[in-house]
Write a structure and sequence with these properties.
mainly alpha, homodimer, elongated, DNA-binding
Amino acid sequence: MATKTAKSENTRSQVYEIAVRLFAERGFDQTSMRMIAKEAGIAAGGIYYHFSSKEALVFEYYKRSHEDHLNQVGDFLKSEKDFQKRLHKVVTDKILIAEPYKDMARALFRVAADPKSPLSPFSEESKELREESQALFEEIVFESNNKFHSDVKKELPAYLWLFQMGIILFWIYDTSPKSKRTFQLIDQTVPLIVEMNKLMLNPMSGFVRKPILQVLKRFNINEIQNPKKEV
Amino acid sequence: MATKTAKSENTRSQVYEIAVRLFAERGFDQTSMRMIAKEAGIAAGGIYYHFSSKEALVFEYYKRSHEDHLNQVGDFLKSEKDFQKRLHKVVTDKILIAEPYKDMARALFRVAADPKSPLSPFSEESKELREESQALFEEIVFESNNKFHSDVKKELPAYLWLFQMGIILFWIYDTSPKSKRTFQLIDQTVPLIVEMNKLMLNPMSGFVRKPILQVLKRFNINEIQNPKKEV
DNA sequence: AAATATTTTTGAACATGTTCAAAAAAGCTC
DNA sequence: GAGCTTTTTTGAACATGTTCAAAAATATTT
């Protein structure tokens, strides 16, 4: 309808919006490319000019929802400097935003589980998005008032991201109404993480902290697929 | 060829063997049902009388390989009673057995990531296999010479199983030659688990042990999809 | 051994994600 | 605005996993 200059960008975003709506309404598997194309008024093959695959449509959503997430927590992080509250808010909101699109998330996770897929969260292709995502956790840690053990502090953001991945995994499997159990899990694990960090500050815990950090460094999650050479 | 009484069981196992061979030779995605059928000398549709889906063929392998695993570690567990050595042996052998079939494991993982799939490791359908698998870790813990904190001891086997799942996940992504890095990861994480267990015995660590155990109990991995009611 | 019931196999058909050469539309240059 | 290039869209074709009614093979009953 609306005739913008970039006709292509127009159909692209139209396809995207129709797809996301249908995925949410009918589920990912129950929505065929032909349905999306028909509603967008183009040929089925045409979608592939704009998106490389059906899953790429979900990946697009994943990207955009990250921006939503940033906006949603931005103000909060500016004023609240307590580590526990920051972490809790960020992870909770991540799930809240995704909640209406659980079925899409499931579909994405299915492809993500394939290491060969460019949509895998650990892949080279999603590196940028992963780093952006981890940057949020850096902000949580580095701009909080809390003290952290200096060695721990460096590795922490990447593993808070992994913690969030774990929560997302639980959420995907969670069938309780409104994913109530996932939110309970967040409520109970976030304080644990905080407590563990306090513990790490104690000089007595060096004998457990050091070997753990060594493993975390040596098998860094960001280098699973492209490990650095051993030093 | 060999004319047994149960003709059906014959074709079933023939289909299975051909499938597994082709999956290992050419990869899961590069092997079509028609290829398998052709080599087995039956119609493509016929496979579905014996196996509910392509992935079910891999699931069958997964089942059988569990028995291989049990046999392989059986003697060792009878003689060696040191917890660390037992755990290390079991997890290492799990990967060693699966190593030639990594591509199949990837395919299985892809479906497993879908909570709706009966092949998901947390599903009701795979409950039996999961419990069998966890029973092995019970044996590791309960028939070792080591001491464990009594509360920890109850929950430990299920979470050692989860630890093994984590190792498998790492292995699936691991592209190093002969999956060398995965074995290094096992070498370095197993002692950590042992160390943590020792730590839990210390009465001083109650303040961290108790909340952790509470979370583990409340969000038991075996009840993700079918949670018990809150008490 | 014939008749009947059950198990197993066939083979065509279907739905679907995806590809690709050709056509159409849009942009650009003179 | 004609001619040329690039971008976008078409629509048929393909490969594949899967389904299912009908046929064939096998087992069971009488």
